[in-house]
Amino acid sequence: VVYLKEVVEMPHYWKKHQNLFLTSELEEALSKQKKNRYYHIIEDTFKSYFGTGLGQPAFNFSVYNSDGELVRLSDYRGKLVVLDVWATWCGPCISSRPDYQKIAEKYSGNEKISFLAISKDVKRYVWEKFLQKKGSSTNVTELYLPFDMNEQFDQHYFTVSIPRYILIDANGRIINANIDGPSIAMEKIIEDALSKI
Q1: Which of 50, 62, 132, 149 is the most exposed place for a label (fewest CB within 10 A)?
Q2: Burial track 70-85 (b if 16+ CB lie within 10 A, e otherwise)
Q3: Angle, nearest 10°, between helix axes 39-50 and 2-9?
Q4: Measured between alpha carbons, how far is 107 from 105 in angstroms, rounded to an integer?
Q5: What share of the chain is helix, strand, coil (3-state, %, to 5)?
Q6: Structure pTM?
Q7: Pairing of strands 80-86, 174-179
Q8: Does residue 86 contact residue 162 with C-beta atoms inside 8 Å?
Q9: Angle 166-169-175 (CA atoms, 0-180°, nearest 5)?
C-alpha cells in the first residue's frame, strides 16, 4: 500500500502504473490497511485520487479574481471549464502558460467554454506582480487561491504537483483531471467535450 500511495501521489510516475490497477484492486488494498495506525493518511490520498475520476462532481471552489472579487466554480455552470493550476515559482507552469494562452485564444468568443488559471502562490502580491510584468491572455481568467484554502483545494483536485490541467463539464462534473498539458491532445479533449454541450 505504501508503494500504491507513492505512485498515486506522483502523477507523472503514476501514469506508468495506473493501467496495472483497477479501482476495485486499489479499494481492496486500502481496505486491508484499516488497522494500520497511518490508515487515515493513506485513505486521504486515495479519496483524493478517486474524487477526480470521470463523472465525479467537481468541488465548488472559491477563489479571487484580479479585482479582489470572489469567484466560484458554480459561476461557470453551463459552460465547459478548463483549469490551469499553477504558481509563479513553478518553472514548468511558467513555460506552459504561453501554450495554454494560445489554446484559450482559439476559443475567443465561444460562450460555451471558459479558461481559468488558478494561482497557488503563497503571497497574493507575488501573483499580482507577475501578472503586471508578464500580462495574460484576454481569454484566460486569472484567479488567486488564498494560501489557507490550498489544502482543501488539493484534497478535492488531487493537485499534489503542478502544473495541473483539469476539464470540467457544463454540469460541474469532471471530464479529465490529469490532462498532460497544452497540446493538440488537450485541444482534442476540449473539442470532444464541446461537441456534447
Answers
A1: 132
A2: ebebeebeebbbbbbb
A3: 40
A4: 5
A5: 45, 20, 35
A6: 0.75
A7: unpaired
A8: yes
A9: 50
Q: Which cell goes with 197?
A: 454541450
pLDDT (tens place) for every residue of the chain, 197 residues total: 455 555 555 555 445 545 444 456 566 666 777 777 766 656 555 555 555 566 788 999 999 999 999 999 999 999 999 999 999 999 999 999 999 999 999 999 999 999 999 999 999 999 999 999 987 778 999 999 998 888 888 888 878 789 999 999 999 999 998 888 999 999 999 999 999 88
Name which of 182, 164, 187, 180 is nearest 99 in CA terms: 182
* Amino acid letter for position 30: L
Residue 186: which region, alpha, beta or left (left: phi > 0; alpha: psi -120 to 50)? Answer: alpha
- Alpha-carbon gap, residue 33 to 40, rounded angstroms: 10
Nearest to 5 by CA among 186, 190, 158: 158
